[in-house]
Amino acid sequence: MNENNSTQLVEDLADEARYAARTLSHSPYETRVKALHLISEQLILDLPEILQANERDMQEAVSQNMAIAMQDRLLLNE
C-alpha cells in the first residue's frame, strides 16, 4: 500500500469513526453500553493479531532508528 492509499484509508476510517460517535452520542444509554461491550469483546478476540502487527511496527521503528520515547509510545502490551 502506498502512502497516498494509506493516508486515504486513515482519513476514511476517521470519518467513519466520527459518524459512529455522533450516532452513538444520540443513542440510549443501554445501546452505548452494549456497543462498548461488543467493541471490548472484539478487541479481545483480535488481540493476537493486534500484538503481531504491533511487533512488526516495533521492528520497523527500530530499523528506522525511531527515538526510544516514540518507541515507548508505539509499544502495546497486555
The total strand number stands at 0
* Percent of residues in helices: over 70%
- Oligomer kind: single chain
Class computed from helices, strands and strand pairing: mainly alpha
Q: What low-confidence regions span 5 or more consecutive residues with pLDDT below 50?
A: none
For the residues shown, what is the average pLDDT? 93
How far the N terminus sits from the C terminus, by CA atoms, comes to 28 Å
Question: In words, what does this structure look like?
Answer:
The chain has 78 residues and is mostly helical. Helix content is 83%, strand content 0%. The longest helix is centred in the middle third of the chain and has 35 residues, at 29-63. It is extended. The chain starts with a helix and ends with a helix. The mean pLDDT is 93.
Strands, helices and their partners?
Blueprint: H1 3-25, H2 29-63, H3 68-74
Question: Could you write a compact summary of the structure shown?
Answer:
By secondary structure, the protein is mainly alpha-helical.
What structural keywords apply?
78 residues, mainly alpha, 3 helices, 83% helix, 0% strand, extended
